[in-house]
Description:
Elements: H1 6-52, H2 59-71, H3 75-79, H4 82-85
Amino acid sequence: MARRSIEERLxxxxxxxxTLQSRLGKQERARDTRRKVLLGALVLHRLDAxxxxxxxxxxxxxxxxxxxxxxxxxxxxxxLFTDILKAPAKEPDTGKADA
Length: 99
């Protein structure tokens, strides 16, 4: 069996390194996606739980209504959240009692 040259071995190691880097990048993207899904599930769960109880989720509802429209850029994505975005917003509390 002929021995491979140092250049050939280095090329093989470089190809293995690139393959492993690609695999690592894929794992990191999958982990990031999983984190986003779980965080989104938590927010939706809190909003739904408050809605089922006939309550307002308070600051969370207001924050989502304020931030989500600017975050979403595609119309298809916006359509996914019409139930949240179209819900009536809570009136700001001015601290003054009605006379």
